[in-house]
Amino acid sequence: MLPRNFKVDLGFTAADDYGVNRAAVYWRKSGHEKFSGARIPLGPHAGKRELIVLYEWDLDGVELFPGDYLEYFIQVEDNNTVTGPGVARSRVFHLSVPTMAELYRSVEEEGTKQTDLVQEAIKEGRELKERIEKISREMKKTDEVDWSQQKEIDKAVASQEKIQEKLEEMQKSLDDTLESLSENRMTSQEIGEKMEEINRLIEEINSEELNKYIEEMQKAMEKLDPEEIRKALENVNMSAEDMLRSLERTESLLKEIQREQAVEEMVRKTRDLLEAQEKLTEETTSADEENEMDGLSQEQEELAERADELQKELDELANKMEDQELADEMKEASQKNSMSQTSKEMKEASSQLQQGQKSEAQSHQEKAQENMISLFKSLANLQMQMKSSSSRQVAMNLQRLANSTLEISFKQEALTHELRQQM
């Protein structure tokens, strides 16, 4: 698979009694007969009998499109000036440019991984909070600190470390996904902004503050000072509560992004299928020869298969949607502009083309196009509704976040006042 930055790391070893004098990489695109070449600089190693070469091959200037693939090999020449340079080649290697479907599949897999990570972090966060609350309840009954409470503190520390590991892994995954989406122009501005908001949320999860409070709690346990222990426990509890809110908001945003990306992909697939059908309809208009009709019939059959596949994906997406209103609208759009019916029209067109009945075939092609245009409009409208709903939800969540921050601030002030009165 070709890396997203179009840079391929090449490495090879070469040995010759006359010394290796020249190296090059040769490649050709799928469907091309001739190989193109580019020299690999050997620098001070040129002429040596044995060498190891590492080279970054930049393909940025090569015109490549999704679905293309490259064949390439390394060729070296020795320094034989008597009978002429000897030539050696590596085996032929292959590089493929991912299709849009493959890129979306990769993004979907990363999204699932990110959701799993944040759900695991939430689980660890809840367990941490439960442990702290358990110790707090026990400290209200007695000022004595026993071995079991110390073990609970150790478990809380372990939970915090696991949370931090998962957050770091998720942030890296998010950065990679955002880079891929941006480089391949695969996403809307709104989705990109949400992913950046998730990154900000993760950065704002103040694990340093939580770590500091946990350390204070450990020190208080060692000193067996009940008041310091209570204070540290309260600080840890509030910090963990704040962290959980941010994690739950992160999970909610990730699910929103996955839903919007799924609808975005359905819009893209519908548009691509529509454009392919429009092109085929134009070719049908200008076709005269019988063998042309046969070829168009086969292409039309392939588009019918894509329509059937799209119908399955639309049904699956509607069934997976958690928002019942959006799910109902997706089902309504799918049923009203059924791709199964579109596929039927396409198959009829294919059959008519096979029989050389161009006019009848065009009639079925136009019906298929009309159905796809209607579906495309319905999906695009649904996409706009999701963006609008999401924007309102973001505003509500920001207000809730501001309120919860004030609530925590008030709790901290009340705790400080209470402790001062006890001193």
Note down, in words, how this protein is organized:
With 423 residues, the chain is α+β, with helices and mostly antiparallel strands. Helices cover 70% and strands 12% of the residues. The strands form 2 sheets. Strands 2, 3, 5, 6 and 7 form a 5-stranded antiparallel β-sheet that branches. The chain has a two-stranded antiparallel ribbon with strand order 1-4. The longest helix is centred in the last third of the chain and has 65 residues. The chain is flat. The C terminus is likely disordered.
Topology readout:
Elements: E1 7-15, E2 20-29, E3 36-39, E4 50-58, E5 69-78, E6 87-89, E7 93-96, H1 100-141, H2 147-183, H3 189-204, H4 207-223, H5 226-286, H6 290-320, H7 324-336, H8 339-354, H9 358-422
Antiparallel strand pairs: 1-4, 2-3, 2-5, 5-6, 5-7
**Portion in strands:** 5-15%
Which structural class is indicated by helix and strand composition? alpha+beta
Q: Provide the gyration radius in Å.
A: 31 Å
Oligomerization status of the protein chains: single chain
Q: Outline, from the CA principal axes?
A: flat
Sheet bearing the most strands, described? 5 strands, antiparallel
Count the helices. How many?
A: 9
Q: What is the helix fraction of residues, given as a range?
A: over 70%
What would the average pLDDT be, to the nearest integer? 80
Low-confidence stretches: 401-423
Terminal CA distance: 67 Å
- The count of β-strands is 7
List SSEs in N-to-C order: EEEEEEEHHHHHHHHH
